[in-house]
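tl;dr need the bound structure. longer version: we got a ligand (flavin-adenine dinucleotide) that a collaborator sent over and nobodys looked at where it sits. i said id run it. heres the input, straight from their email, havent touched it
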Amino acid sequence: MSTYAKSLTSAHKAFLADLFPGDDLILSPEGMAAFSTDASLERAMPWAVVRPDGREQIEELLRWAHAERMPVYARARGTGRVGNAVPVFGGVVVSMLKMDSVLAVDENDFVAVTQPGVITSDLQAACAAKGLYYPPDPASVKISSIGGNVSTCAGGLKAVKYGVTRDWVLGLEAVLPGGRVLQCGGRSHKDVVGLDLVRLFVGANGKLGLLTEIIVKLIPMPETSASVLVGFGDLHSSLAGANAVFQAGVLPAACEFMDKVTLQAVRQGGETIPLADSAEAALLFKVDGTEEGVAAEVRQIVKALEPLKPVSVETGRGDEEEAIWTIRRGISPAAFRIKPNKVAEDISVPRSKVAEAVDSAHEIGRKHGLTVLCFGHLGDGNIHVNIMHDAAISSEVEAAHKAKDEVFRLAVALGGTISGEHGTGLTKASFVSEQLSQEEIDTMVSIKQVFDPHSIMNPGKGW
Ligand SMILES: Cc1cc2nc3c(=O)[nH]c(=O)nc-3n(C[C@H](O)[C@H](O)[C@H](O)COP(=O)(O)OP(=O)(O)OC[C@H]3O[C@@H](n4cnc5c(N)ncnc54)[C@H](O)[C@@H]3O)c2cc1C
């Protein structure tokens, strides 16, 4: 068990004030409040917030923090949903947002080199300006940073075709506790020399060191895309439909599903949605590539689905494609038409187990007297399970949390994971041992000790 600094002494404050002049050191409670929470709404006050603008400051900071056993919490845009950036042990929050330059977009090497504080959609725009594409697309792409995305291994709608952040990081630079600088990987798209240290940092949630530079792989921008929204009379036909499409040899860029409860909630908004009223489940595909390829894939999808007798099929490109996606974008606000609060989980199971997972999640909801919405990234078995309840009614809160525990156990029992996207952070820390064996956890702890012997990096988050 590590022993940490108990507070920020006057000597600590003097050190930080010297290293971070002016506004780059925040010590006032009002100034620090915004850094005490993230999208999880978990909250804990730090003792200090610093805003480095370069690697040298970070090296000095981590030399000092290592010597002083000072907890260090990296923070980017604070959009994490499980409290990963929340400073539960106090200590120093390091805001990475001043390091926000795209350093290079290289159309010969097909890479981008970036500082971690760049908003991911800004990085994508810089790549697009040169006809290049960085595909990972978490729904938070316009509000989260590339450093946060790498540290959480963010994934999005297009993971089914393009993978998640881990599949795109070629190299990085990290400053480790003690001030050591580790540069690993590089611009080479292939590299099999030694252990893959780059991947250790992807999804490490700032527990190994602070990322100061990231190199990502790029591909040519797809020429065009199209979307197909398909309504089905029941959930099982829709899930069989997705299989039929994959078995027909189509790899869609996105393959989303929505269950009956989700569609009911969206319809209550009264907006026109391009889906038959009789549809009790829906699939939403996106395909991308060349004009001819996209047209052919749309035809293949429609043909593969025919035997499942869809009740409606709507295809769109350009503006029409956008109209089709409004149904998917409307889900989060629509859920609150059912109940004012939700416990939102992001389990992932093998694709063949999605139907069983969705049926069982509804059953768990019924058992606890609560409505459960299931929708999400069917292509990668990643199901958003929203357990709707009223937080003003304590029995509903208790029931929602019991239901959540059962949903986690269900995911693990089906050979899946308690989190496909958001990680475990604070809110799911106690469930990590339900999924990982003690052997796996011990190995992770040993690896962390190599990078961070005093465990000062993001402590208090489960392992
Ligand atoms: C509306 C909404 C939609 C979302 N949709 C998705 C989604 O589709 N897919 C998905 O995967 N997630 C999603 N998220 C979650 C969140 O956006 C991601 O986890 C994102 O990657 C966090 O990025 P951030 O810049 O906000 O990082 P933060 O939340 O500030 O930090 C996240 C973690 O990264 C660490 N970190 C940040 N920067 C560094 C650095 N430079 N060095 C080391 N560690 C660092 C922090 O310590 C923390 O552990 C969503 C969140 C919201 C609010």
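gonna send this back to them w/ a short note. The chain has four domains: 10-97, 102-220, 224-330, 338-435.
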